[in-house]
Amino acid sequence: MAAKLYKEAHKPLPDITDMTRPFWTAAKNGKLVLQKCQRCATFNFHPKPWCIECGSRELVWTDARPFGVVYSHTVSRTVAMNHKGWEPELPVLMCLVDLDDGARMYGQVTHCSAEDLRIGMRVEAYFEAISEEAGIPKFRPSTQAPAPRAPLPHLP
Question: What whole-number distance in Å separates Cα of residue 34 and Cα of residue 18?
Answer without folding.
Answer: 14
